[in-house]
Write a structure and sequence with these properties.
alpha+beta, 41 strands, single chain, Immunoglobulin-like, six-stranded mixed sheet, 32% strand, twelve-stranded mixed sheet, 13 helices
């Protein structure tokens, strides 16, 4: 039985022998800084009783007057936070006189950082992404910015929990092990550390870390004509050791390069065999010998290069084989390719019964196999569609008997010895031009050439002022003893050739060389030794070698048609030695040998005469060094490796090429005469060309080329200069194409052997025609190197 105290502050219990002491309520409380209760245990001692542990935030009954001592734990940790009791609340003591609250205040001093850790695994699944699973074992460490370690734990079952002390606001660096050993190799974390900003001691989950299988890198490049080819699709297939198959696609960049990260294991890289060039829109295909699929065995973290995939212009090739019914190859069979009924290519089968023909364009064609060379039997025709390479086969019955073998091709040259005589002819070595015509010798041409040489002016009957100006500039007239004397003043340094001259860079260097030689040779002759122990024979020999080399250099620089670059370089090396030394005391070569033999050094100079002697040698060296510097500046014009050439020098070369071309026409006619294809027959031998090009008689073609080389081309160049050369280029191109087309199909031409006389099919005639085509192409190349400045733009107003 309880009875409330009169003051209402406690209760009195009624015992069997009378009332007991008054009992008061004492609350044992623990809260955080925001007054939220904390579930912790405190040690409580009432009076002299034995201390006991009680759960905080509960109420106990204590007799009046008793002393209650409560000891709270210094720190307390929840699942995600750490608290520390305030120092004044660590130990609480109170004497119970009323209902009392023993409360301790805890402040947050840390929090928990959590995260998930997984790893990739390989399996037979062919999904794009690898499957993952929880991992155990890696260590996780937390550091403060100053490098102090504040917490450490290990990953268990794919999770980790770091209890990190907290001081106000702070930054913590959480770091995991970078590498993890796996069954298929090392696994790696792309980001193995993370900065975490702790605030208000709130728990923090920093996400998921995935240990990934270490990839390998595969590189390569696609090329077209030696340059990078962009936009080529690339397929990369990798099969890892665990069976995982991964397929990726990539595209080459602007430089033709590509790169892909793949799983370690067997990697195959494939490109298409045909692509479109993005720059030109043309179809390209892989070059011969280029494999479109390449394989590599790669380890994780390694890089490999599969090399270059070379592409070239798409080739349209027909490969055909002719065999007899038993399967044996048949040789000497004419195989043609027709488009819309017109032959575009033809070849005879070889000993293996095979032919290969390359066409200009893709499309639908007919492969025509003639069963006998005389075409007495009907051909076998098969339609094909040519995109890249088409292969096929035709089986025919072999036609036996003389009719077949009489016209079957033989080994080169074997058909000419028994069939045609060996003809000889008196040949002039004077280089006479095309003899198939009578060369005019008009006075007009002679006069025009003389005016051009003397006045440096192109004759023009409508330009009287130009004639007077050129005449005035070309002659220097003076009054002398009552009469007028005129002296011719050359307009340029030039040595006249048939069409060109020594002009431009060569004339400049040649003039300098001549003046230098005229000045230097007497100086060399006047040198005197400064050494007391000089040997007269040594000094004389070294001086003569130097003078001979200098004269040879001057003659080479004035050589008609341009100096030979290798010889000029060699002569400079003989005179000055190798290297680019400009100090006379350091030069080598023969001039250096003269210096050493004569003792031409400042240390040996004692008198004014000796110093003049040394000065003369320095002047000679300076002349040669200056000449070499001019040569180096103009050397590229003599190398003839670019299209920027001097007109005069180029015209000498073009004149020679035209002379060779005219002689080549005579050689073709001589070869035709030797196989009984005479002048009359040549006028009836019609050459036919496909692709809508009109036919032409052989005699007309040869006469056109001869007249062009001997008359038209030289005259146009004389009258038109660079404009004349430019006008000749289309004509040369047309003649070169016609001459190439005049060859038999088996020699790369367009003539069907069955349509031409037997003599025209002989090797001697075909070789002569090939040489004629080659000389035309050489002359064309020389003409294309001549550039003409663009016409000035018209300006309004």
């Amino acid at each position: 039985m309880e009875k409330q105290d009169k003051q209402g502050k406690g209760t009195t219990q009624q015992g069997p022998t009378g009332p007991k002491a008054v009992q008061f309520q004492v609350d044992i409380a623990a809260v955080d800084s925001e007054d939220r209760p904390l579930s912790l245990e405190a040690q409580v001692q009432i009076g002299g009783e034995k201390p006991r542990k009680l759960r905080a935030n509960q109420r106990i009954q204590v007799p009046k007057g008793e002393v209650v001592r409560v000891t709270y734990p210094e720190t307390f940790q929840t699942g995600t936070r750490i608290f520390r009791v305030r120092e004044e609340h660590r130990h609480v003591r109170c004497c119970v006189k009323l209902d009392t609250v023993c409360k301790a205040m805890y402040d947050p001093v840390g929090c928990v950082i959590t995260g998930t850790v997984l790893r990739e695994i390989l399996d037979e699944c062919c999904d794009e992404e690898l499957r993952t699973e929880p991992v155990s074992g890696p260590e996780v460490v937390a550091f403060l910015p100053d490098g102090r370690e504040v917490a450490r734990t290990s990953v268990r079952g794919g999770r980790f929990s770091l209890l990190v002390p907290y001081e106000h606001r702070q930054e913590v660096l959480v770091r995991l092990d970078r590498w993890l050993r796996g069954e298929s190799g090392d696994l790696v974390l792309d980001e193995h550390q993370l900065r975490v900003w702790l605030e208000c001691c709130e728990p923090c989950d920093i996400g998921t870390f995935i240990y990934r299988i270490q990839r390998a890198w595969i590189n390569g490049r696609a090329l077209a004509g030696g340059a990078g080819l962009a936009n080529v699709p690339v397929t990369v297939t990798s099969r890892a050791s665990g069976g995982k198959l991964q397929v990726q696609t990539a595209v080459t960049g602007a430089g033709g390069c590509f790169s892909a990260a793949v799983l370690p294991g067997r990697v195959a890289v494939s490109v298409p065999d045909r692509v479109v060039d993005p720059a030109t829109g043309r179809m390209l295909e892989t070059s011969d010998g280029t494999r479109t699929t390449r394989e590599q065995e790669l380890l994780g973290g390694r890089t490999a290069d599969v090399g270059e995939f070379a592409y070239g212009e798409e080739r349209h090739i027909v490969r055909w084989r002719v065999r007899d019914p038993e399967g044996a190859p048949v040789s000497g069979i004419l195989v043609e390719v027709h488009q819309n009924g017109v032959p575009v290519a033809a070849r005879y089968t070889g000993d293996d019964g095979r032919v290969e023909m390359e066409l200009d364009n893709a499309g639908a064609y007919d492969v025509v196999v003639h069963r006998d060379p005389r075409r007495e039997l009907g051909p076998v025709t098969e339609a094909v569609v040519v995109n890249s390479v088409v292969e096929g086969e035709t089986r025919i019955a072999v036609v036996a008997g003389p009719a077949f073998f009489a016209t079957t091709p033989h080994a080169p040259g074997t058909d000419e010895v028994p069939s045609y005589p060996v003809l000889t002819e008196e040949v002039s070595t004077g280089g006479a031009l095309y003899s198939g015509r009578t060369q005019p010798a008009g006075l007009a041409r002679t006069v025009s050439g003389a005016l051009r040489d003397v006045l440096g002016w192109r004759p023009n009957v409508k330009d009287s002022k130009g004639f007077v100006a050129a005449l005035t500039q070309s002659f220097d007239c003076k009054e002398a003893q009552g009469r007028t004397e005129c002296v011719w003043v050359p307009r340029t340094y030039s040595v006249q050739a048939d069409l060109g001259a020594v002009t431009g860079a060569q004339a400049s260097i040649y003039a300098r060389a001549q003046k230098a030689l005229d000045h230097a040779v007497p100086l060399l002759d006047g040198l005197r030794p400064l050494r007391a122990d000089s040997d007269d024979e040594d000094t004389a020999s070294s001086l003569e070698i130097a003078k001979t080399s200098a004269r040879s250099l001057g003659a080479e620089l004035g050589r008609e048609g341009g100096a030979r670059v290798q010889r000029v370089d060699s002569l400079f090396e003989v005179l000055l030695g190798r290297g680019v030394a400009t100090d006379p005391a350091r030069i080598g070569g023969q001039l250096g040998a003269v210096r050493d033999a004569y003792g031409l050094d400042r240390a040996n100079v004692n008198t004014i005469e000796e110093e003049e002697n040394l000065t003369n040698f320095l002047i000679v060296v300076d002349h040669v060094l200056s000449l070499r510097q001019s040569w180096q500046a103009q050397r590229s014009f003599f190398a003839r490796t670019s299209t920027d050439v001097y007109f005069g020098t180029q015209m000498v070369l073009l004149s020679r090429a035209l002379a060779v071309l005219a002689e080549s026409v005579d050689e073709v006619q001589f070869a035709l005469d030797s196989v009984f294809v005479g002048s009359a027959e040549r006028q009836t031998l019609e050459l036919r060309f496909p692709r809508d090009r009109e036919p032409i008689f052989l005699a007309d073609l040869l006469d056109w080329i001869g007249t062009f080389a001997a008359e038209e081309a030289p005259q146009m160049i004389r009258d038109g200069g660079k404009a004349g050369v430019t006008a000749l280029i289309p004509v040369m191109q047309r003649l070169a194409d016609l001459t190439r087309g005049a060859l038999l199909v088996q020699r790369g031409g367009q003539q069907n052997p069955a349509d031409v006389p037997a003599g025209y099919r002989t090797n001697r005639v075909q070789r002569a025609m090939e040489e004629l085509a080659g000389h035309l192409e050489d002359a064309l190349a020389l003409s294309e190197q001549v550039r003409r400045a663009p016409a000035p733009a018209a300006v309004d107003g």
